[in-house]
Amino acid sequence: MTDDLPTRHRTFCRLCNAACGAIVTAAGDRVIDVRGDRDHPVSRGYLCPKGRALGAHHHHPDRLDEPLIGRGEQRASAGWDEALDHLAGAIETVVAETGPSAVGMYKGTAHYVESAAVGAGPAILAHLGSRQWYTSLTVDCPAVCLVAELVVGHPWLLPVPDLDTRLTVLVGTNPMASHGHTMNIPRPKEWLRRWATDGELWVIDPRRTESADVATVHLAPRPGSDYLLMGYLVRELLRHGADRSYLERHTTGVDALAAAVEPFTLERCTRGTGIPGERVVELLTKIRATGRVSMVTGTGLNFSDKANVTLWLTWMVCAVTGSLDRPGGMWFNPGYLNQTHRQTWEPRDGTPGPGPASRPELPERFGEMPCAAAVDEIESGNLRALVVLGGNPLIAWPQPQRVARALAKLDVLAVVDVIDNDVTALATHVLPAAGQLERADIPTGSELYALRSFSQYSERVFAPGADRRPTWWILRELGARLGLDPAARRDPGAASEAAVLDALYGSDADRWRALHATTNAVVTPERPHGWIHAALPDQRLRLAPAMLIDELARTRDPESRPAELLLTNRRQLRKNNSTLADGHGLARSAQPGSVLHPDDAAQRGIADGDPIVVSSAHGELRTVARLDGRAVRGTVSTPHGFVEANAAALVSGDAVDPATGMPTMTGVPVTVAPA
């Protein structure tokens, strides 16, 4: 018990990019209550179960409290100077023996939201001369960035629904559980109901999700067939329903696009997707009548082997109707700080960089190597030292048993994390990071993909406990020992957290001061339209990138009656990837389990709750059956992010998209049998 009087702290949740406002009540060094902030101008009191578990996560019994050096019985506690000196020395030995490219870093989901540490990892690698930078992007959504780069010339410019949209289509995404993927949406039920009430909301997903329950219409295509629907819509809209004035002023490649989608007839669409023809025509008619449309995609598409062409075609539905960067369609949020529309950039054309030595056929994109190649790099001896920042390769990368063997083989495996886990167990160096309540932050992942232009600044609720340090400090100290800004080591107090954030985000002094002047989020009414067109050469979107035209022509339609079940994925409300997958602090924890249609289960002698084995050509996982009549027959919906029931065991680092290196994680043929 503590005698300290309770104090209330306004902050925001960083367990996903929605960045919902939270009120944390603390007594001394203990969190005694977490609830939504009713005065927050964006989330308005909403806080999902993940956010309400912030206190329990902060007090997790497996919190990392002190630096550790060594593996197994050789592991011992160390002070920070000893641990960082030892780590820097080990890295320098690897560089001396094999070269700087033998050193790499992996950035996981938790590190994306550490605003003061942005850019620190790549800066260290650049100083050493290594390109071995990996992030969870390449096992999550590289197609999203590739399509943006090919169409608008910038991988991070992703449109979100305009506030005045009257027709919203969600494709392979379930914001009710995920709060968006490349669209950040607090209060998801309220927004989805608004879209359904003010206009229409269509959900396209093989499973009748929580979002589909709120929708005007739900269409259930076969996994991996969405591109057939989108190709048909683009074909017919170009024939009747296109905004010709918009296309003439703002696009190139209309004729090439029309030729590419000409084979996408209604008969081909319905045969491949399994969607009745009258429902397909109904959607087409609705788009024509409304004039503009918002299309939002998510993990269901990104994990597919057809992600590139499907995402591109959803962009094209918006483009041919004049809905991109226009009121009532999709808008490009320029961000509250360091606003994109005030900057200039050299538009990229999608040309990749050279891939890793062991997998030269896989490209470097967006300054990143594909995670699917990391194990090959380790096994070949090209990668000998790896620093893991807020991620779990054993869950995120394909073939976890192979990953575990590779990580154990590394000369150096340094893990910067908050909670002890199966990756820290393999590490040579464990560096305990401050949790989100122990650091100041702004929502770096929310600004560009939010429905409104906003930002917020939060002071830390607690000073870092035990012997933890903020990640920015850990990387600064490591970089100093490796020769990057050695003055930082001579004067450890030279950079405070406030100074680091100010250097990174303070270029717009007025807006930065406005953030610091309030304890709440700052929302601006501005919603600029047309700035993307103005920033591009000749103000033109590229509708027909040769890479995507060629890939579409090579794409084979899915079988209408596959012999095996097809793996699909899903996100869950009570965890974000692996975070909170152990259920700690949740009143009702996220549960592993594969969702089957009751008829598919009955054919295999499986009842609800039975232990089952799900097998693919690449491996198997043991889990439990969850029967749901809302699932599409012929599918097995399995969430990722669990250690034991690891969906990554069903996919391979060899079965990847050659354009992005993304492993195919949905639409994979599987068998299901009683365990």
Automatic annotation (TrEMBL):
The protein's matches in InterPro entries, at most eight in alphabetical order, are given as: Asp_de-COase-like_dom_sf, MoPterin_dinucl-bd_dom, Mopterin_OxRdtase, Mopterin_OxRdtase_4Fe-4S_dom, Prok_molybdopt-oxidoreductase
Q: Which residues form the 4Fe-4S Mo/W bis-MGD-type domain?
A: 6-62
Which GO CC terms are listed, alphabetically?
Answer: membrane
Q: What is its EC number?
A: 1.9.6.1
For region Disordered, the annotated ranges are: 342-363
Domain of life of the organism in this record?
A: Bacteria
Q: What GO molecular function annotations does the UniProt record carry, in alphabetical order?
A: 4 iron, 4 sulfur cluster binding; metal ion binding; molybdopterin cofactor binding; nitrate reductase (cytochrome) activity
**SUPFAM superfamilies in the cross-refs:** ADC-like, Formate dehydrogenase/DMSO reductase, domains 1-3
Gene3D superfamilies recorded: 2.40.40.20, 3.40.50.740, ADC-like domains, Dimethylsulfoxide Reductase, domain 2
EC top class, in one word?
Answer: oxidoreductase
Protein's recorded name: Periplasmic nitrate reductase
Q: What is the gene name?
A: napA_2
